[in-house]
Amino acid sequence: MSKIVFIEPKAPNLHIYSQFKLPRLGIYILSALMKKRGWDVDVIYEETDRIDFSFLKSADLVGISTITSTAPRAYMIADRVRENGVPVIMGGPHVTFLSEEALEHADFVIRGEGEKPLMDFIDAWEGEKDYSDVPSLSYRKDGRSFHNPKGPVIENLDEIPFPDFEGRYTGKGKIRRQTIPVQTSRGCPFNCEFCSVTGMFGKKFRFRSPQNVIKELRFYNRKKNHIFFYDDNFAASPKRLKVLLEAMIKEDFKFDWSTQVRVDIAKYRDLLKLMYKAGCRTLYIGLESINPDSLLSMKKNQTVEEIKKAVNVIQKHRIRIHGMFMYGFDDDDWQTVKKTIKFAKKAGISSTQFLILTPLPGSKFYNRIVSQGRLLFKDWSLYDAHHVVFRPSKFTLLALQKAQMMSHKKFYSVKRSVKRLFQFKWFDVAISHYARKLNRMWEKKNQTFLKAVDILTSKKNASVKLEFKQNIKLD
């Protein structure tokens, strides 16, 4: 029996989800497919599992999935595995767009969706090892790189098997997890400038049927699990969502769940009622900016008024909001920062992330920043939306980094926590305590990076520090 080991590398830095270990779904779906083919399969999720390189020597093939921030760790793992004579195949968003770079460390790269290309690759692997017809595959032969044309995406997502968690996340195995990731759709037609989703999964929404989703949800523990729907926009099809929510209510699932939506969910109040009844307690929303010019330039297709209305409407339906904002667009300045913090606090949002705009490979923003010569750091481990890696338009490097750090301190202040305490909003208080602790840990761990940013901004340090002092107080 042939053996394959799938690995998802550990994130290199602290972030707001550091305490919540939630794997991406790719390696667990591919694990299910490979078991159906009769292979011996192991999965290593490095956030919780230790990598034993001596154990990997027994594998016939090692598959590594990576996003941009985990790419350096993924490459290091791949190099060590290949030193032991074991071939490596890589996949995920980062290597999809930088496959030539990945081939410096891996034998093969699958670009985009991996399910069908991996099966075609295994056909070739088990046969004559001719990879020329494997769609979406990049590889090297005789010193040359070959990048086969991308194959079509899977139109019927019901064909994809349920992820094989081996009991890890269902409460049935030795490792119990509270949160279970579920994905019911792929693709996005909005094509925001800073996002690489469309390059990975296409511009067209594709959906699993409600019946197929319900069938998967029945596997999980109704009392011990929390479901997080990974969809980029869970409400992309209101009609389909209504059918799914009604089915969930009929099943009488006991678990709470959360997901990601756009602000246009506020247009469908009947859906918000059903979402709460079906167990939705938190919505993650990319509010991005309350600077109209920034929203326009990023092609977000939403307005500041729509953001304000959505926050108000959703909270009236007793659903918490985790708002995600980004700083660093060419139209952003200190006034944008001050207005954003004021809005987040006044709106009563339960939790938030103030992120730094990051030029991810595969996005239009990355291509623009590279062409303008504004990319400053090529250390991919810094590409986690918590580190400034490009030259902003209206900020210095240090000022943008300080703006992000200061925003979290202001939003998650002790004063605000005490106020929430007297309002009996225990969830908000707990999140604030966690966020303050995480901020302190992040600053301590990133002292070297902060010093480097300080040095790069050295000629303007005096003015930056003065500007920071002038803007740190909010009216």
Annotation keywords:
alpha/beta, Rossmann fold, six-stranded parallel beta sheet, 19 helices, globular
Briefly summarize what is shown.
The chain contains 19 helices and 15 strands. The chain has 475 residues and is of the alpha/beta class.
Question: What would your notes on this structure say?
Answer:
The chain is α/β, with parallel strands linked by helices and 475 residues long. Helices cover 40% and strands 15% of the residues. The protein has a domain at 3-112 and 114-147: Rossmann fold, CATH 3.40.50.280. It has helices at residues 26-36, 53-56, 71-83, 93-97, 99-102, 115-126, 197-201, 210-217, 238-251, 269-277, 292-297, 304-316, 334-346, 364-371, 397-411, 414-422, 426-445, 447-456, 461-471; strands at residues 3-8, 40-45, 61-65, 88-91, 108-110, 137-141, 144-147, 179-182, 185-186, 206-207, 226-229, 257-261, 280-288, 320-327, 351-356. A seven-stranded mixed sheet has the order 2-1-3-4-5-6-7, with helices on both faces. A six-stranded parallel sheet has the order 8-11-12-13-14-15. A two-stranded antiparallel sheet has the order 9-10. Helix 13 runs parallel beside helix 15 and helix 16 packs antiparallel against helix 17.
